[in-house]
Amino acid sequence: MVGHLVKFVASFSCTLLFCVVAISTLAPAKGQAEQITLNSESQLVDMSTDAAVKDFLADPSHLVIQTADRKHPFIIELADDDSSRTKGLMYRTKMAENAGMLFDFGESRQINMWMKNTYISLDMLFVRQDGTIHHLVKSTTPLSQSIIGSGGPVRYVLEVNKGTVERTGVKPGDQLLHQLFTPKSSK
Fold it and tell me: Do residue 98 and residue 132 come from a single domain?
């Protein structure tokens, strides 16, 4: 009888330990990892070390919004020519939570955007050449032809789903991390 009790306690302890380990891996520590989804694929992205962030950013379709307390990974499309900037996110009816489009205007200047033919509400982040967020516009109005200005010279605009600014806590002065913002080393 004692032998069965010891086996039960040992089994229960191992099961409890497994549950604790499983729960801790399903709920990553703040600032360490984040679940991101693009289309139907989902992956856990490690943001716990500079090396992990560097590995993530090796892919040009990856971007990180760095706030005071956390790094938020995104999968983006790049709009870096007239055709892709003109079309932008027009005609789309949905976008994955951690997805977005980064517009590169090639130089710093006043940028004006609009929501013509854009069916989803967006948050817009107006970004300086070094990746610093200059200005934010939350919850744009779908299909609106009203001008949305950058509030000063910027080179980039990141469009993400409505609610991203609130969810991430991003604010002016925070940083975007992407290959475009990496300083070029001088030779």
Answer: yes
